[in-house]
Amino acid sequence: MTPARRxxxxxxxxxxxxxxxxxxxxxxxAAPAARAATDRPxxxxxxxxxxISGFDPVAYFTxxxxxxxxxxxxxxxxxxVWRFVNEGDKAAFADHPEIYTPRFGGxxxxxxxxxxxxxxxxxxxxxxxxxxxxxxxxxxxxxFLADPARYIAAATRKWPxxxxxxxx
Length: 168
Description:
Helix content: 40-55%
Oligomer: single chain
Distance between the termini: 22 Å
């Protein structure tokens, strides 16, 4: 799909269909990764240029659900643009990006455990061990929840090699 067509579809989706439809159109489309404060690659939505498709990373912890950040509450950190619901979330992230940045840069930990870099989807998520994890699909999330410790350990071992394969 051409960039112009993608932008046109995105505009249409944000109109009558709402922001979740736009997210669905862009799901799985990741731009080359950028580096986070931890100097690790972070999945960026190619259509919007935003980390985790514009969702507020702090809201997963404070509100217990994904929430779209506001365009007027953006923070650029090491070339990555993050959006937030409110000033408090923005300040919390600015103070502790290593806590609120999704683990494995927003890449699916189940895929990382298998040696692959697959961007996670902001609507398939879990917070465990005080860290946010994003998944490519509901099935991957379900597999992870069956044995989080096993997937986290395997993904942690394989992440350095997987991260090196992600386009910069």
